[in-house]
Design brief:
With 290 residues, the protein is mostly beta strands. 10% of the residues lie in helices and 30% in strands. It is built from three helices and 17 strands. The strands form four sheets. The protein has a six-stranded antiparallel beta barrel with strand order 9-12-13-17-16-15. Strands 3-4-5-8-7-6 form a six-stranded antiparallel beta barrel. Strands 1-14 form a two-stranded antiparallel ribbon. It is globular, with a radius of gyration of 17 Å. The N terminus is likely disordered.
Length: 290
């Protein structure tokens, strides 16, 4: 997992293009692709906690993540596990996987030496990255969370705090609101995503729901978040953090891994409100400690 040369830029670009295509197929909870960037969000360069993943420090980004603690970034498992594969079968060699500093404009950030290498990845041993809804195969959306252990701390402050089980239930009941930061695409027109411009984007005033996901049996580990009309996640927001400010403290609720109705966020019908599917963090806290 250590040493070796970095990928050639052209190979990296081709690889990222193919990965983006796979993610695009994966991103709707009911007709499903995993997430990429934020549509009609607010640019928040310098935002805390949010990072993007890079398959080498000079290649195009893919997926988002949260700087959780001093040497740990959390993202979605499907961002790092090969399609149709299990834990330990990564999309690329770990020696070529980096994370950005928090909140940067990565397209205009020239000092790539400040990106930080990933040394180790942890996902649940039973995770299997397969999502073929027409065959009723949904395993890739169960336990879709990954811990990336870094070579050194990032320069920003990690979030450190997370929502407890009771606080997550408050969110489900609509008692508290949340925010979603991500590095995904900026729009979706003519069946094609508009590439992220390098900046992180924010959507706020997100509320929870008691809605369940029929193919995920353990509802304590997953939730559905409802977005304001006209705003949505987009390919590239997979792994992005859902965060709530509770009692004046930012708390990490969980990792966004898929979205619903993201291709039509401007349709003004309550039945098609954009939403995201989230892996709740608190049940995985003991795995983080170990």
């Amino acid at each position: 997992m250590n040493g070796g040369s970095e990928m050639d830029d052209k190979i990296a670009h081709k690889f990222v293009t193919s990965i983006s295509a796979v993610l695009l197929l994966f991103l709707n909870i009911f007709q499903a692709p995993p997430a990429n960037s934020i549509i009609n969000g607010t640019a928040v360069e310098g935002a805390p906690y949010v990072v993007t993943l890079l398959p080498s420090p000079s290649a195009n980004n893919f997926c988002s993540g949260v700087y959780f603690s001093e040497r740990v970034v959390i993202t979605a498992a499907h961002c790092v596990v090969k399609s149709g594969a299990k834990a330990g079968e990564w999309n690329w060699s770990i020696r070529n996987l980096y994370v950005s500093q928090t909140g940067i404009d990565w397209r205009n950030y020239k000092d790539y030496s400040n990106c930080v290498r990933v040394l180790k990845i942890w996902v649940t041993p039973t995770y299997f990255n397969r999502y073929i809804p027409e065959n009723r195969q949904y395993e890739g959306q169960v336990d879709d969370i990954a811990f990336l252990f870094l070579e050194k701390p990032l320069s920003g402050q990690p979030i450190n705090s997370f929502a407890s089980e009771s606080e997550v239930n408050e969110f489900r009941n609509g008692s508290i609101e949340a925010q979603n930061y991500g590095y995904g695409c900026l729009d979706y027109e003519n069946n094609k995503p508009t590439d992220n411009d390098g900046k992180p984007y924010l959507i706020d005033k997100i509320y929870g729901t008691r809605q369940l996901i029929s193919h995920i049996t353990d509802s304590s580990r997953h939730l559905v978040a409802i977005y304001p009309q006209g705003k949505s996640i987009c390919p590239g927001d997979s792994g992005s953090p859902l965060i709530s400010n509770i009692n004046a403290t930012d708390k990490y609720i969980g990792v966004v891994f898929a979205g619903g109705f993201w291709t039509q966020p401007k349709v003004a019908r309550a039945s098609t409100r954009p939403n995201s599917t989230v892996t709740v963090f608190w049940p995985y806290y003991q795995a983080y400690l170990s």
